[in-house]
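Translate sequence into structure tokens.
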Amino acid sequence: MPKTFDARTKWSTCVALQEIRDQGPCGSCWAVAATAALTDRFCIATKTQFNGHLSVEDLLTCCCPCAVSCVNGCQGGYDDEAWDYFARTGICTGGDYKSKEGC
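Result follows.
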């Protein structure tokens, strides 16, 4: 193991690794964290062929209690259920809330 490691330096061209996403007043840390981690993994695994953002808003609004037990929107959710959602349904691209980035 190296004494130090900084993913931002190792994969400096992955734009999402250079940012800290803001959840604002919404209790969406579970969704922001899971989506950011998957975004970073896609960038790294594809050697920056994918170098954008995945949609936290998609996860917050589509991963509903009727489908799985992962979400109560801004009132919290479960990151492990978010990963199940990604595997089961996928997730669309998208930037910060109301940015109109992505699909």
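Note: DSSP finds four helices and no strands in the chain.
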